[in-house]
Amino acid sequence: GQCTSVWPPSFTANPSAPAAAGVSGQLGVIARAGGQQITYNRWPLYTFAGDMQAGQTNGQGVFGFGGKWFVATPNLQP
């Protein structure tokens, strides 16, 4: 839909929880149409279509699709 064209889900090919050095929160996955979506502290993760390079956070604070979007940080709580 229109939302996922702006905020595509962050998918992984691995059906088990991914690991990342330096990440203090809990990474996981949830099954959804299209694959296994990565979660962080039980929140599903998305990317922003306006970010063209790794490390960009152009979607920070954007309002749309029923809420305010923000960058996942180590203190993210469900």
- What is the share of helical residues? under 10%
Mean pLDDT: 88
Per DSSP, the total helix count is: 1
What Rg, in angstroms, do the CA atoms define? 13 Å
How many β strands by DSSP? 6
Tell me the domain tally. 1
Shape: globular
Could you name the ranges where pLDDT drops below 50 across 5 or more consecutive residues?
A: none
Secondary structure class reads: mainly beta
Question: DSSP strand (E) fraction?
Answer: 25-35%
Major β-sheet annotation? 4 strands, antiparallel
| Order of helical and strand elements | HEEEEEE
Q: Give the N-terminus to C-terminus distance in angstroms.
A: 25 Å
Question: Would you mind describing this structure in some detail?
Answer:
The structure is a single chain. The chain is mainly beta and 78 residues long. Helix content is 6%, strand content 26%. The protein has one domain.
Throw out a few tags for this protein.
single chain; 78 residues; mainly beta; 4-stranded antiparallel beta sheet; two-stranded antiparallel sheet; 26% strand
